[in-house]
Prior knowledge:
alpha+beta, Alpha-Beta Plaits, 4-stranded antiparallel β-sheet
Amino acid sequence: MEKVILTVKGMTCMGCVRSVKNVLEPVPGIAEVDVTLENGQVAIAYDSAKAGVDRFREAIQDAGYEVVGEKSVGLE
Length: 76
């Protein structure tokens, strides 16, 4: 399992947090999504054989938010 933390711009409320979780959770390979509104971070645990960061960025941007940073946390 790998983990990446994306910094997302445009989330302003708990509705935004739900929106981001709702677009990411159905993506194949994602095991866990944790969204922190205060610092705009989205932590994603995923199987790199089934999913990738480009797909996560696309889903978040399709929901109307902007990914402005990325930090790979590595293997768990």
